[in-house]
Amino acid sequence: MPELSHAVAFAWQVAADEALQLHHTCIDPQHMFIGVCSVGKLLTPEVQRRTTLTSQALASVHEEWEALQALLSEVNANPAGLRRAMRTFLGTGDSQVEPGARVKRSPATQAVFARAAKLAETISAPQITLLHLVGALLEPDSGPVATLLATEGLDVEKLKASALDRATSLSQRAATHRSLPLDPAQHAGAAPAMPTSSVAVPAAPRPQVAESMDASMAPYTAAPTTTGSARSLAVLYELPLQFGAVTELGVLLQLIVERLVEAIPGADRGALLVKESTSDELRLRAHVPPGDPGVSLTLARRAMEQRQGLIWRRGKEDLSSSLVEQCTESGMYAPLLWQGQTLGVVCVNSRQEGCAFDHQNLRLLVAIAHHAAMAVANHQMQEALRLKSMLLERMLTNFSPRIRDNLLDKAARGRLRLGGEKSEVTILFSDIRGFTRLSAAHDAEVVVDMLNHYLGALVDAIFRHDGTIDKFVGDAILTVFGSPEPDPRQQEKAVRSALEMQAAMADISRTRAERGQLICEIGIGIHCGEVLHGFIGTQERMEFTVIGDAVNRAARYCAAAPGGEVLLSPQVHERVWRSVEVEASTISTKHEGDLPAYRLKRLKASAPVS
């Protein structure tokens, strides 16, 4: 029989505790469901400090928890909300469990574990995961779990099918985790076993806690019949809990408007508008009922300009045409204010004669407007950070992935600054032979297609060995090794990169020749020496560059290299001679005269693996 995953074992412990706290004599599927929805607590730093689980086991718990959250998000549900709903359904127990007694698994819970094990065996999964357990809990004979979810408006059948699909995918990806169990007294190599039929109630009394409250729940709740300040408080305290659970701004704003209309007596319409960042235009982001927002832009703008919440009633002032068309009798408007900025407006309206919103209603609207403003501001900040990150990544596209990640980390900590330094780097120049002739003899589209085909493979070969592309100069590439970060193996990496570049050119040329497409060859020159390198420009526009005679010398070796060959300077050869086979040569230059060179043939068989 499959073993329990660490996540399921933790859910079982929570379920047992839940039954004990409610003075229930049996652990029912409802308790198990609360346990499943509580697994995320195992990933909090405080609980992790107390657990004996290894990092590998915690990683498997994290993967299962993420899969469960993704499953619930498909039906617009979240674990915290479902946990609260189930606890409300359970209420409080009416029997006292005596110390030393056994809290047993109910027959329904035993059936759930048996069904979960069967589901795991069906897909040859080595462990029962949270997804298997959810699939088993959603069966009609698992008690009221499926019934409760259906009353919450969730598609139970869709959830069940998706849970099994995700369980199959998770089983195929994940390796079996053999790490420390939840109970440190067990053998270190053991995995959590199937739960026994009962759990003992501790004989020793626990610390006397006068009262406790689930901090993941709103401190004020209201039944559908609750009215007045209690209902207002329930809405006011519930909404901030949704900020972390609901990540999409539109969904969160819609939830805010719906809760407002439910909480304010007489309100039958509501809307929330957000000001565009590039203009004063108000965009309707949420409203109820669908298609009938009931907004007066005149009143909305008044509330925003005066930065005040206001109550409007028919007869107190002239009606605008929109209010006449909407048959609005009264309404309330409040601006969305955040750090001195007006981000939008929220309103509720009533078409009921005699409905009179009061001061308490307005206070609630203004308070909720503050919550909405915080949500909008947070979304705008996240969007701005995302765009800045994208721009920064684009600026760093000339760097290999490893170096790019390091530079992004420096930028995040404010340490990516202008300035250069002098040190030794290795310069690799590559250039297409006869490019001017090729360009003159063929259409521009044909030449550009050829360049793109070759350059993609060349860049890959450069990045694989931590090279930095200083610039593309037409058909040439200027590459630097050992900058912007120092690298003691820079010359070796440059040589390996050059050989891979020529190999890639040869492979692509064969393929293109078979298709009758234009082909070319490159020559490569490599030299090392002291240069000034770093970021130049301004904080708003900075570029990486390298300046020094070593760049010019590398260009000389590149110009002398025939197509398909790599020429090394003596300075490079001095550092890589043990790893390469070369042929001594000489190149002629216009200003420096004849220079010694080494034609790179191949890596030696004894060369260390890069």
Could you characterize what this model shows?
The strands form 4 sheets. Strands 11, 12, 13, 14, 15, 16, 17 and 18 form an 8-stranded mixed beta sheet that branches. Strands 7-6-10-9-8 form a 5-stranded antiparallel beta sheet. It is α+β, with helices and mostly antiparallel strands and 610 residues long. Helix 2 (29-36) runs antiparallel to helix 5 and helix 10 (229-245) runs parallel beside helix 14. A hairpin with a 6-residue loop joins strand 6 and strand 7. Mean pLDDT is 79; it is low at 175-190. The protein starts with a strand and ends in a 7-residue tail after the last strand. It has 3 domains: 3-200, Clp, N-terminal domain (Double Clp-N motif, Orthogonal Bundle), CATH 1.10.1780; 229-385, GAF domain (Beta-Lactamase, 2-Layer Sandwich); 401-603, Alpha-Beta Plaits (2-Layer Sandwich), CATH 3.30.70.1230. The chain is built from 20 helices and 18 strands.
Q: Which characteristics define this entry?
A:
single chain; 610 residues; Double Clp-N motif; Beta-Lactamase; Alpha-Beta Plaits; 3 domains; 8-stranded mixed sheet; 5-stranded antiparallel sheet; 20 helices; extended
Describe the structure concisely for a colleague:
This protein has 20 helices and 18 strands. It is an alpha+beta fold. It folds into three domains: 198 residues, Clp, N-terminal domain (Double Clp-N motif, Orthogonal Bundle), CATH 1.10.1780.10; 157 residues, 2-Layer Sandwich (Beta-Lactamase), CATH 3.30.450; 203 residues, 2-Layer Sandwich (Alpha-Beta Plaits), CATH 3.30.70.
